[in-house]
Write a structure and sequence with these properties.
Blueprint: H1 4-18, E1 23-28, E2 51-55, E3 58-62, E4 67-71, E5 77-82, E6 91-97, E7 101-106, E8 113-117, H2 125-128, H3 141-148, H4 155-159, H5 170-179, H6 193-212, E9 253-257, E10 260-264
Antiparallel strand pairs: 1-6, 2-3, 3-4, 4-8, 5-7, 6-7, 9-10
This protein binds a DNA duplex (16 and 16 nucleotides) through helix 5.
DNA sequence: ATAATAACCTGAGGGC
DNA sequence: TGCCCTCAGGTTATTA
């Protein structure tokens, strides 16, 4: 479900309710996520939350003695509710605050994760190898040009590789390639420096616009306030296979690339 | 070393 | 209704 814009939307939604709040309780109802929830995440009890950061699609909840690392997987979302709100099916974790707000981690498919570390979370094995943040200056045309150089993979596969750039998933990879007029099947090594520049620009643009719209709600993504994101209306290709391209009116192609559904316009994207 | 694939789960939707 | 199949916004571990 959530790519970088949805995770950032969640971060912005929960941060005002969590930061500087004391944690009254941590309730783990279902520990069997992508990895077992680290039992010591209950160390948060009694501590004050210092800040909530994002790295790629990971949320980092910092407290004095450690940091909770949270990933929403494919189907996860976070909501802030009053702590007396009944649990729903697949509400796996609750972080209950002194304010009586409760952060609920809901994740039907359980591909998400909640880990606790007392080290620098950025050095955690899951985060240490992540590529640059797509919206940072480190992600620029020169960098991508270096990455595509000599790669035999398709360009879409490459930009979805978190070690190349963090947080670009299936929706925004497709959208960015359309904006950059690049065929997703193109071998990365055949992208020239101009293509790299356009693609970097397109990725930044589409992510920024999606964050502005509160993310993309396809079926079940909701912000922490329970409201959907509105970027779906702006999608140019994702989910539009068989429909006319908004630019040239030709029928959009739909193929499978690396076991992922991929939509593109074979006229506009070369 | 690089790249494809199998795996972790539930739920929705389509075909029969 | 229900059974079986396929597919879904992600990422690691395993295999080739």
């Amino acid at each position: 479900m959530p790519e970088l814009p949805e995770v950032e939307t969640s971060r912005r939604g929960i941060a005002p309710k969590l930061v500087n709040q004391q944690v009254r309780d941590v309730i783990i109802r279902q520990p069997a996520l992508r990895w077992p929830i680290t039992p010591s995440v209950t160390d948060l009890r009694g501590q004050t939350i210092d800040s909530i950061q994002r790295r790629g699609k990971y949320l980092l909840i910092y407290a004095a003695t450690g940091c909770a690392i949270l990933h929403l997987g494919m189907s996860g979302h976070l909501r802030i509710v009053s702590s007396d709100t009944p649990f729903k099916k697949h509400d796996h974790v609750a972080i209950v605050l002194a304010s009586n707000d409760s952060l609920r981690f809901h994740d039907p498919r359980r591909f998400g994760a909640l880990l606790w570390t007392t080290d620098d979370p950025l050095c955690h094995p899951l985060l240490a190898r992540l590529g640059p943040e797509p919206l940072s200056r480190a992600f620029n045309a020169d960098y991508l040009w270096q990455q595509v150089n000599h790669s035999r993979r398709t360009i879409k596969t490459l930009i979805m590789d978190g070690t190349v750039v963090a947080g670009v998933g299936n929706i925004y990879a497709a959208e960015a390639l359309f904006l950059a007029s690049i065929d997703p099947r193109k071998t990365a090594g055949n992208i020239d420096s101009d293509g790299s520049r356009k693609l970097v620009q397109a990725i930044k643009h589409v992510l920024k616009q999606a964050i502005k719209a509160g993310g993309t709600t396809l079926k079940d993504f909701l912000g922490s306030d329970g409201k959907p994101g509105y970027f779906k209306q702006s999608l140019q290709v994702y989910g539009r296979g068989g429909n006319p391209c908004f630019q040239c009116r030709n029928t959009l192609n739909e193929i499978r690339l690396n076991q992922r559904n991929t939509v593109f316009c074979s006229y506009c994207q070369r």
